[in-house]
Amino acid sequence: MGIELVAPEPDRWRARFFQHRAIVAVLLPGAVVSHIGSTAVPGLAAKDVVDILVEVTGEIEGAVHVLGDAGYDLEGLRADHAWFSHPNRAARGVVVHVMSRDSDRARDRLDFRDALRAHPRMRAEYLRVKRAAAVTTEDWGVYTAAKAETVARILADYRRLSW
User: How far is CA 104 from CA 6, 52, 112, in A?
Assistant: First the structure.
């Protein structure tokens, strides 16, 4: 039982990111595409799933249709956030998060990645919490919820330090 965290594989994860960034650039010209999540943080163990943030101008609805038509598996949709799996939700290699450019939610994802990249103490704290969460569940929602308090604290600390 549990979610499997693997040793860092930066070259493979970066290659997977660049492959999908190239696809998204063709499908959604003008979108800003960023590598986020644990696979974007050097030296951090992670699920073998690359998270990608796609920031679009205006509403996300058009991007949702384009990515769905291109074979990305729509897993969830809110007014300000859609997420897709590739090749599908049963065999995730990539999760693509679509958000409006410069939204608070997008800024949180980028700032969290940057906090973990810049601060070894924050990275170590997050890794401890993430490992504990990973062994207790196979459910991604439960896993994410178990990390939420730590993520919020790290974001707040990082932003305080950045001012």
Answer: 30, 16, 12
Element (H, E) at 95: strand 94-100
Which tens digits make up the pLDDT trace of 31-46?
A: 999 999 999 999 999 9
98's CB contacts (< 8 A; 6+ apart) are 54, 56, 60, 63, 64, 67, 81, 82, 83, 84
3-class DSSP assignment, residue 54 = strand
Q: Can you say how many angstroms the Cα of residue 109 is from the centroid of all Cα atoms in its chain?
A: 7
pLDDT digits (tens, 9 = 90+) for 15-27: 999 999 999 999 9
Show the tokens assigned to 54. Answer: 């796609």
Whole-number Å distance between alpha carbons of 100 and 59: 6
Predicted structure pTM score: 0.95
**Confidence class of residue 71 from pLDDT cuts 50, 70 and 90?**
very high
For the chain, the straight-line distance linking the first and the last C-alpha, in angstroms and rounded, comes to 42
CATH H superfamily, domain 10-162: Beta Polymerase, domain 2 (3.30.460.10)
Question: 155 by DSSP, 3-state: which?
Answer: helix
**SS3 (DSSP) at 148:** helix
